[in-house]
Amino acid sequence: MRSIKDKNVLVTGGAGFIGSHLVDELLKKGAKKVVVVDNFFVGKMENLEEAKKHENFVLYKDDASDLGTMEAICKNEKIDVVYNMATMALIYSFFNPYTAYMVNVKIAETLMQLMMNNKFKTLIHMSSSEAYGTALYAPMDENHPMNPTTPYAAGKAAADLLIKSFCNVYNLDVVIIRPFNNYGPRQNDQALAAIIPITAKRIHENGKPVIEGDGEQTRDFIFVKDTVRGLILAYETENLNGEIINLGTGEELKIKDLIDGICKYYDYKGEIERRPERKADVRRLCASSEKAKTLLNFTPEYTFEEGIKITLDWYGEKNGRNN
Ligand SMILES: NC(=O)c1ccc[n+]([C@@H]2O[C@H](COP(=O)([O-])OP(=O)(O)OC[C@H]3O[C@@H](n4cnc5c(N)ncnc54)[C@H](O)[C@@H]3O)[C@@H](O)[C@H]2O)c1
Question: pTM here?
């Protein structure tokens, strides 16, 4: 095993939800330097409150797709490892498909250029289960076909293909991680928010929770701290060159059951608004975690009950609730 300790690590999108949890864990594990590059599209300064207390934390408010900027940062900060977490939310791709698609591809292209020119050594790239599209079989392993249904997901799939091809040709030290749906504290609850934070917010602001479609669509929810542990193992495990690895739990949850559970937790007894099915919504996601177990010795530690309690308590407090 190699160690993240004493490494200079750059995290693109480090002011976002998963990125900021990763930053905290990298600092806790003794990374020599943790450098965040985030353009604050949805990233928040408050997500970096803990990180900012460390003297080995550096923040750049910049665009991670810009080659010149990234080259200068890699050089100045002597970067060893890059975690590529930056993206624009899936929902954004319904309003601005081209930009949502291109950001994923452009950042991947920039990182490949930098790696080819030895500007840093290792890349842990964050893909997404959305690259697979709806499950053709379950659990979904890493050989499941890629059938992205949104421009966001197409950008994720394209970035994976781009990175994998560079990795094959130039023998680069890359791992591609495909996490399934993440949840936990700090997930964006403003515009472009995902289902758990937006439902918590609606309940606390006297709005109605919303189910789009029949609510039978399923997701595999993994707690953010488990994902972060998997991401660090992806660096620490040697000889994974070019591997694609899922991070999920193998458990499926229907969206209507998720919403019911959140309502019960907050003792909400009001109406649930029904809206038409979201266009291009993935119907079913369920991860096979076999490869993560075999290669990374990774299994999730948080049960859904444990993770969702931490999450809903956090949003409850944020929304001014006294638990
Ligand atoms: N949240 C999930 O359920 C989930 C599931 C699978 C994969 N992922 C992937 O994990 C990664 C992190 O997701 P998240 O949920 O934390 O998202 P997030 O939106 O909270 O974080 C993404 C961050 O990237 C930043 N960003 C966007 N464009 C940028 C650019 N050009 N340059 C620099 N920064 C930029 C944003 O400001 C934000 O802080 C993403 O790659 C996402 O595709 C997330």
Answer: 0.98
